[in-house]
């Protein structure tokens, strides 16, 4: 039987006729766009004036594009590394898990949805409001478990009242207090939902030798109450720390009871009363996931969530071909599981890990959807990447398709070496 090469040499027109449709498609969808992009990158925004390499110079001098380039470097280093490492861990651990198939299905499931859908999901996960965003709901729950939050974060002194706001956020009663004379510390601006369950405020008693007082919400619905006076319907602010301060030193402190009253010993006589700022600090509201400082790591985390399953499946397939005799021999020789993993499993999986890592690198260089959907307009410039910048430069405000084409060519130059490395690796594997 004649070999395939002999047939091609004898009838080259047959091979050409079969290849022609594919070559036409390749030329129309790949070769022509690449050639046109290279040509367009050498002209200005209008496409009429030849500017040479000025558009490529813009890539390295424009602050927005340089930010995108820096973020791309972060993506290339972090995302493939983390996704490959997690895929390796999942692949190894699932060999010892009873419900391995179910676990692999759950980890791989994010690959079934599009980048757009994943972006919408994580845009909601990263919502700043803990009542809507899962990430901050978890963060605030953990924080509040180990750190107490203030009871009355919205309370403020009544305007024109006896309390003044200090630079450190505390509230100070300007007039020194006298033992036996009750001190009134009215506050306002506490929302009604926070007051649900609060007791009615009680007037302080004038105990001789002691400093007494009341901290309460000085507001009556309908405006029937009098200012700086404890009216019958007004509610107490319990759990507020009250300090007696003399010459900048705290000489006594106490906490208001359920009815808002407090009692300080005789040492507080002649001192000023202060409500420390800790009573009124705003509650912990979680992390600003989509703020300028954390937005890129947050989006990378969403990418890893999607692609760790892809890495796991490929690495698990490679792991299935690892000779079990080699692993068992190492264990018989006294190697523990960590040594078996580090010295045998990982080296034998090196070709597969390389393919997964390089594939993810190529994928990361083209990342666009997640950044465009997840990053809000306020921090999109901080999360920018080259593929997104290509779109913004070509079709956004003040579009310049010359610069956009230059970015496209630059991305191609970044992808080509990675593709060559991957092809050479695959060729070596096929020759074995």
Based on CA inertia axes, which overall geometry fits?
A: elongated
Q: Give the class from helix and strand content and strand pairing.
A: alpha+beta
The total beta strand count reads: 9
- Give the number of helices: 15
> What integer value in Å does the Rg equal?
34 Å
Global mean pLDDT: 87
Quote the CATH topology of the largest domain. MetI-like fold
The total number of structural domains is 2
The spatial strand order of the largest sheet comes to 2-3-9-6-7
Helix proportion: 40-55%
Biggest pleated sheet: 5 strands, antiparallel
Which architecture of the largest domain per CATH? Orthogonal Bundle
The H/E string reads HHHHHHHEEEEHEEEEEHHHHHHH
Q: Considering the protein shown, what is the CATH homologous superfamily of the largest domain?
A: MetI-like
Distance between the termini: 26 Å
Our estimate of the beta-strand percent is 5-15%
Uncertain runs are: none
Level-1 CATH class name of the largest domain: Mainly Alpha
Write the layout of secondary structure elements.
Blueprint: H1 4-10, H2 12-40, H3 54-61, H4 63-93, H5 100-108, H6 115-125, H7 134-146, E1 156-157, E2 163-165, E3 171-173, E4 183-188, H8 192-195, E5 211-217, E6 241-246, E7 249-255, E8 261-264, E9 272-275, H9 295-320, H10 324-332, H11 337-365, H12 369-374, H13 380-383, H14 386-395, H15 401-431
Parallel strand pairs: 4-5
Antiparallel strand pairs: 1-4, 2-3, 3-9, 5-8, 6-7, 6-9
Helix pairs in contact: 1-2, 2-15, 3-4, 3-15, 4-9, 4-11, 5-9, 9-11, 10-11, 11-15, 14-15
């Amino acid at each position: 039987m004649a070999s395939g090469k002999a047939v091609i040499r004898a009838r080259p027109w047959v091979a050409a006729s079969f290849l022609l449709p594919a070559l036409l498609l390749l030329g129309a969808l790949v070769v022509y766009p690449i050639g046109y992009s290279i040509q367009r990158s050498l002209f200005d925004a209008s496409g009429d004036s030849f500017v040479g390499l000025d558009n490529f110079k813009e890539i390295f001098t424009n602050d927005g594009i340089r930010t995108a380039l820096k973020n791309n470097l972060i993506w290339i280093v972090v995302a493939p590394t983390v996704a490959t490492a997690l895929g390796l861990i999942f692949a190894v651990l699932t060999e010892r898990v009873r419900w391995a198939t179910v676990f692999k299905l759950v980890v791989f499931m994010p690959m079934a949805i599009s980048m757009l859908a994943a972006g919408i999901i994580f845009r909601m996960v990263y919502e700043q409001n803990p009542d809507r965003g899962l990430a901050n709901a978890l963060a605030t729950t953990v924080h509040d478990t180990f750190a107490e939050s203030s009871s009355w974060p919205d309370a403020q002194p009544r305007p024109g009242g006896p309390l003044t706001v200090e630079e450190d956020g505390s509230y100070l009663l300007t007039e020194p207090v006298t033992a036996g004379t009750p001190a009134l510390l009215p506050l306002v601006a506490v929302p009604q939902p926070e007051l649900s369950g609060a007791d009615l405020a009680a007037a302080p008693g004038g105990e001789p030798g002691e400093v007494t007082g009341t901290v309460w919400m000085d507001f009556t619905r309908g405006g029937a109450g009098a200012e700086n006076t404890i009216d019958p319907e007004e509610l107490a602010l319990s759990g507020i720390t009250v300090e007696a301060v003399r010459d900048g030193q705290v000489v006594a402190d106490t906490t208001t009871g359920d009815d808002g009253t407090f009692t300080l010993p005789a040492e507080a006589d002649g001192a000023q009363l202060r409500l420390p700022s800790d009573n009124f600090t705003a509650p912990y509201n979680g992390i600003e996931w989509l703020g300028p400082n954390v937005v890129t790591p947050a989006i990378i985390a969403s990418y890893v969530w999607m692609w760790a399953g892809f890495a796991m499946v490929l690495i698990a397939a490679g792991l299935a071909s690892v000779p079990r005799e080699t692993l068992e021999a190492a264990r018989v020789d006294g190697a523990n599981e960590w040594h078996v993993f580090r010295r045998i499993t990982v080296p034998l999986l090196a070709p597969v890990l390389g393919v997964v890592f390089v594939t993810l690198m190529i994928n990361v260089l083209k990342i666009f959807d997640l950044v465009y959907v997840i990053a809000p307009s306020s921090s999109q410039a901080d999360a920018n990447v080259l593929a997104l910048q290509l779109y913004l430069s070509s079709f956004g405000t003040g579009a310049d398709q010359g610069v956009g084409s230059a970015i496209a060519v630059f991305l191609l130059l970044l992808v080509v070496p990675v593709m060559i490395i991957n092809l050479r690796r695959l060729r070596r594997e096929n020759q074995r």
